[in-house]
Amino acid sequence: GDTSRPREPVAEELSETLLSFDIDGSTRISLEEHYFRVFADRNGDGWLSKDEYYLSLYKKTNPAGKPDNPYLFPINFILHDWDNDERITYLERKFVAADVNQDAELTREEWVKGDFPNQYGPFDGHSMSADLGKEPTINTVRFFFYTIFHECATQGLIEYRSSLVASPWSRSCILDVLIDHNPPFVNAQLNTTAECGGGVLFCNTVNGTQDAHPGTHHCTSDYDCANGRGCTYFGFCHKQEEMEPVGAIPRWRRWMNNKPPSGYTLDVMKEAMSRLKYNYTLTVKEDLRLDDALAPMPLEGTKKKQGRPPLTLVLTSAFEQLRYTAKDSNPINVTRYACTSSLWPSDGFVVVVRTTPDILSNQMGMWYMLGSASFVNFVAVFFFFVLVMGHFFWFFERTLNEDHFRGFYAEGVMDGLWFAMVTVTTVGYGDKVCLTGFGRFFGAFWMLFGLICFGLFGGQVVTQLGEMQQAANIQNVDQIFGLNVGVLAKAYPGELSSIYGFQAREYDTVKAAADAVKRKDTPAMIMPHADVLAYFEREEQYTQQCGNPLKIVGEPLLQDKLQFSIQNSLCACDRCDKPREGTSVYAAQYLTSAVNEEMQQLAQEGFLASNQERYLLPSTTDSCGPGHGFDIYSIVAMLVSASTYFFLLWFVNSKSTRPFALRLYDRLDSFLLELSFIIGIKHRSRKYLDADEEGEVDEEEDNNVLVETARSEHIEKYMDKLQELCLGHNADIRKLQVEVMEGRKTMSRIIRFFTTSGAVILCVVCNVYTTLVIVWGSEIRLSELGAPADAIFTTSLPEL
């Protein structure tokens, strides 16, 4: 009970002491830390001023070995204060102590000997090799990023009494999140009234006027503001409840209609940040892109002592925001940025088709085929072959088959074309036939060609109709194979078409591709899911009559490919070389990993599903039902035609209307005849002249006309008879020629037959005789050969 006597400290006291004196976060207190914290830092503000440094035992001599002047040229203080904020932190002192060769860069060996704790990131997480093959080092720029991360994480560890495993981040370290207005994922509109144009920081959002006296005095932290006020990023004191978010460096509200930003992606990020207890601000930037994420750079001027600079993050919600720059649309190297996993589980690509599919009737398919390129090409090639074969048939048949293929070229070729067309289509009227061998041979070939040709064309017609039916009823990505599909020109159309086997039609915007689908130029489009929903929101598609004319079919695609899967993400500069070359911000990996862990928890708790239902599902229930399946135009045309036919039939045959119908018919016939005279189709004769016109005609002229007409008719009559006689004579001559040629052929065949038969018989007799001689030899009896009985057989020749 005696408090004056010393005792062993309890665990809580040891923990508090360790947090106070363990400046570098190594979970142990070194002599260097103890000296800096207890002796060098006389006022206990956490850093050394110039006076405190020169009162300490740290090095105060210049390279020549002489003491430096703390007022004229404090060289040692400048070497420690490399961020020029007129104060030296413990990490700056530790960097100088670890830099043995004093080249303002730490090698891996110096980093290890300097006792930098691994829990704040490995050496490779903070270093970057400037040249290929050069040993990686950590210079002052990269070490500045390390100090920002170290101080924010360590301060957060002290504030929340947690370990680095929980990813603490001090609320004094602002996270500046850039957003762009892109509903339904991010809905953020600045106050654009005349007084508040451009999002003036000190703007009264209620009446749209600028506050003339926004603050009472300049400040560097919340401690400089009285009555519970907070210090803004620009050094003014305001009421905490008037600032968003609440924290050490909040910013003034400037949203349209005093409505804070919202949206699916933004609300997910807010919830994750809230659970992690991170302090952030929201800054609207038009045409936001991934390369707008910047590393925290040292503050300049009067802002040097206002705290740590903010780390700029980017909240993306569209495909191009993550992948292309805004100015020149160059590709962005996404691997140089640290991004969270998708904040929307349904990110990826989707297939979009028309909500009401087309009803493809046989008539519509027929008209589509008649106007299709394949049909036109087939007709052109087919006509060329018919023309060529028509000439062949005429050439072979014109001399011996003049009845069917006339000898005159113009007439005969037309006969050949008609025969070629009738034969190749397998109609075969029989009005014309081939009689020559060549003609029949080519005719057989031509018939087989027609069967094959029309069989292939029929199969192509069936295939194309099937594709048209498939294009009209797309239900998933497997059904777009071989079709013309709209894609974004920047969404890697070549890779998409190779994955799913469709023909890519490139468009610059989602709207252009959607308009093409509505016009039926393309049956579908495959687009980033987030971009499609944003397009629906902008165009107010959900509120149109019969609902949205477009719909998404199937599940999101390519979610396993980083190149396509993410549109909604929170990203920070990791090794992006912006705003200066040599950037290496390990804090980007630290923060995005923390958000990813919270995202998993939010998904398990159902927050993501409820948030999606709130923002991303259409609120309208208005929709059109499926089509009835009837071809209205064909049905109406059939009914009108049938009604007209039956009406005319009744009108002509009815006793009451027949006289009127006949008179009407006569008038119509007279009108058409008169019209034919006017336009020159027929010549007017005397019987069609009026009485007045007939009286004016001279009788002699009439007689001459009658005589001339009779003479012409008489001559024409005899010429027709002469032509008939000539044709009959020619036909008889051709028949006689054919009979003579056939008789000649028959006689030739008979002569060849008897000649061949005699030769064969002679050959057989000779062979039999020769065989007997060879087999029997001298044993042949002469009597058996017909010789006398007393004849002598000898094998020798008589002597001459």
Describe this structure in words.
The protein has 800 residues and is α/β, with parallel strands linked by helices. It is 46% helix and 9% strand. Strands 10-3-11-18-12 form a 5-stranded mixed β-sheet. Strands 15-14-16-13-17 form a 5-stranded mixed β-sheet, sandwiched between helices. A two-stranded antiparallel ribbon has the order 1-2. The radius of gyration is 52 Å and the shape is elongated.
Question: In a few lines, what is going on in this structure?
Answer:
This protein is of the alpha/beta class and 800 residues long. Helix content is 46%, strand content 9%. The longest helix is centred in the last third of the chain and has 78 residues, at 699-776.
Strand content: 5-15%
Global structural class: alpha/beta
What is the CA–CA distance across the termini?
177 Å
The counted number of beta strands is 18
Spatial order of the strands forming the largest sheet: 10-3-11-18-12
Q: Unreliable runs, pLDDT <50, ≥5 residues?
A: 194-217, 244-253, 778-784
Q: Averaging pLDDT over every residue, what do you get?
A: 77
Biggest sheet, open or closed, and with what strands and sense?
Answer: 5 strands, mixed
Number of helices: 24
Q: What Rg, in angstroms, do the CA atoms define?
A: 52 Å
The amount of helix comes to: 40-55%
Shape: elongated
